[in-house]
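Quality-control log, excerpt.
Job 1 of 2 completed; input and output follow.
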Amino acid sequence: MRLFLLTALTMLAFAANSVLNRWAVEPGHIGAVEFAAIRLMSGAVMLAALVLWQRGGIAWPEMQGRLAGVLGLSAYLLGFSLAYRGLDAGTGALVLFGMVQVTMFAGALAGREGVPPRRWAGAALALAGLALIAAPGAVALAPLALMAVAGVGWGLYSLAGRGARDPLAATAWNFVLALPFVLPFGLAGLAAPDARGLALAVVSGAVTSGLGYALWYAVLPGLGAARAAVAQLTVPVIAALGGAVLLAEPPGLRFWLAAVLVLGGVALASLPYRALTSR
């Protein structure tokens, strides 16, 4: 029960990033790039503090794959915030989730990993769901493209971080090293945030990102690959429900049809075969 509750709390934190970003940026409480910069700074401070508290110090990170991870994280943060000027919370989370999985799939192909047929089928289903969202008249293409960039960025970040011996410390370093890439955009922004926008950005960085990632790495060993994949399938749905309740953005039929395709495809591609066939 404790593991279930902690996992549910982590998924709520991940979904909350979409709701908080949309809540802050769309009404104009803060500019999109300013939100990304403050989120990154707050997350970096929180993650560094956690590593110092747990380890008593921060060693210089391994540099293999570091630049790719930092650039991927920067692209994710900026694309994510900019996209939420034109996407509702649920749609943005679903597009992000789908593009991350497509990028991970492409990474497997590029690395010449063995790709079983069901993973091909899962990727095709996810792409069909994304195509349904991108159909004419569904959403504006510019925000959709920006969220796709964010998804590719997070996918590259995830690929670069595979095999990290200390994921929490690696994440802290990536947040710190991404500051020179993201902060100039925030400083060049023209919109001065109000108190609500600033608070939402800090919460997104320090709590739902920093503490959320720390909690995820703490519960991940107890979950295993299959349950971790299933848990993450809930994030776009939670974001959609949060957007409906807090932002008056109820998802329509197109969203739910696309969600079935994207999340079903991800489940087919990522879950172990035994998890799909066990009763």
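Job 2 of 2 completed; input and output follow.
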Amino acid sequence: MSTNEFYRAGTIKRVRRTAAQVEQLDRQIIEVLRQDHPQSVRHVFYRMTDPRLPEPVEKSDRGYRHVQERCVVLRRSGAIPYAWIADMSRQGYHVDTFSGASDFVERMAGLYRSDLWADSDYRCEVWAESRSIASVLLKDCQNLAVSLFPCGGFSSLSFVHEAASQHNDSDDWRPLQIFYIGDYDPAGVLIDRSLEQEMRRHLSDDIELRFERIGINLDQIEEFNLATKARKESDARSQHIAFTVEAEAMPAGIMRRILREKVEALLPENALSVAKVAEQSERAHLLEIAQFLHGGSA
């Protein structure tokens, strides 16, 4: 497939959508999120730029703002649940307090996780270029018990150093596999290289580092016909990059599927099902302890 066949910047000219057009756009947004959630607003926006839709939006900042506004309206009206939109851009910091030892044990029982990776030959992490991408991957990473790092572009030295130090201090010398997802653009193709180099600089020589960009890659752009934009002529970096593709241009469901396939390939067979059985047993035991403590404090 030639680059001329990719979706280009939208040429849809609109002054103002009619009520009927807005209703059609809303139906499209609801259907996309009904089929696959959670998604970030940017993921939804790229789905709405598909010219095959009855009511596509222009591939521009104005088009993004319109989709963003409709997502707000639809959530406030109850047409789509708030949880269907993923957003890690703003998070609070909380302090947990407890009424007693039994309350602590009971609430912590629900957080208990069996060590899914105990019998794996690897340990694994997922790094994402932005919080927008990370918000879509969070639940899968939690389910697979892998750490998720939204690095926000070129990571700070302290951020990478801290991540490497956690491994150096763990007494775990298994190879470390990092899967990375980021934009395909002059800067994006350099971020993962910079991250890998910085990790190797701080990681102990006794720990083998395996680093793989699993998105966005050139073959994925062709396979999934992802939306492209012309590169900025003023950007002198990575001259081999002929066009740019944001990671959110890949449908969220496909992104999650690629991630799960990569991560699960590192786990022993049936590791997830075995871990869930062990977790149920241990949680039940913790709840028994909580009941005993509650009885003792009565």
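Post-run check on job 2. The two ends are 72 Å apart (CA to CA).
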